[in-house]
Amino acid sequence: MKSYISSIVSILEKLKPRTILDIPSGEGVLFRELTFDVEIDGLDLYESKPDGYRGFQQFDMDNGLPKDLPLYDAIVSCEGIEHLGNPLLFLENIKNHLNDKGVLVISTPNIWSPSSKLKFLMRGFFPSFPNLAGKIIKGSHMHIMPWSYPSLYLFLKLAGFEEIRLHSIKEKKPKHLFERFFGWPQTIYCNKNARDAASSEVREYWADAGSLQSVYGRHLVVSAINNKKVE
Predict the structure, then answer these.
(1) Helix 179-195 to helix 200-209 angle, to the nearest 10 degrees?
(2) pLDDT category, 231, cuts 50, 70, 90?
(3) Quick one: pLDDT at residue 216?
(4) 175 contact partners, CB below 8 Å, separation of at least 6
(5) How far apart, in whole angstroms, are the C-alpha atoms of residue 198 and residue 125?
């Protein structure tokens, strides 16, 4: 099992939500890894209904989410948001389908890792986000939106989420010794801003932004809470 999936499963195992929406659901890995009783629905543009899922729809999430979906205790988007051209619409629709105090968990590649920065410096493109000229087909399975923790935090706040936190993933951080050279100025900058923060919320943001996972990790796993009741 991939390390970022293990991190997502660990979060859900602690919360034990009764209902989950898995988007994109892929082959249904999430259901197979959870050990508690839960009802899971899925959305995916390419795959069919995974075994064990209660409900399923094929849907293009660049259009948000289907309006006929119910409310969920948790919504999981594992390696999906980097494929979307309308991430704010996607996140706003997710919030509208979460119960009060419901949790959103997102994973996505991290462009802040040193190897990602080096590739961008040399070629102008992040890893797994190549030049797509001549290969652009709307709805195709391609990475089009790169994310760091600060950019994901920004979009989650714009969508109305609170208690946004970055979670650790079991991986070597940094993966190579030379990466420390590219990461330490960023760590120092984030740590200084954490010390000077005017509120606990801002302090937590800078602490997460300057963490080993944010600076050196290959992926991000971020959770956020819907603190306002849906009317």
Answers:
(1) 180
(2) very low
(3) 96
(4) 115, 216, 218
(5) 35
Q: For residue 128, give the nearest of 114, 112, 116, 140 by alpha carbon.
A: 116
CB count within 10 Å of CB 88 equals: 14
- Residue 27, both tokens: 């082959």
Answer yes or no: is pLDDT of 91 > 60.
Answer: yes
Angle, vertex CA 6, rays to CA 36 and CA 16, nearest 5 = 25
Q: What is the pTM of this model?
A: 0.93
CA gap 24, 38 in Å, rounded:
17
Q: Would the pLDDT of 67 be above 50?
A: yes
| Beta-strand pair 162-167/72-78 | unpaired
Cα–Cα dist 193/97, whole Å = 34
Write down the pLDDT at residue 230: 43
pLDDT in tens, 115-140: 999 999 899 999 888 888 888 877 67
Distance between CA atoms of residues 186 and 148, nearest Å? 13
Contacts of 64 (CB under 8 A, 6+ apart): 86, 89, 90, 92, 93
Rounded to an integer, what distance in angstroms lies between the CA atom of residue 9 and that of residue 170? 13
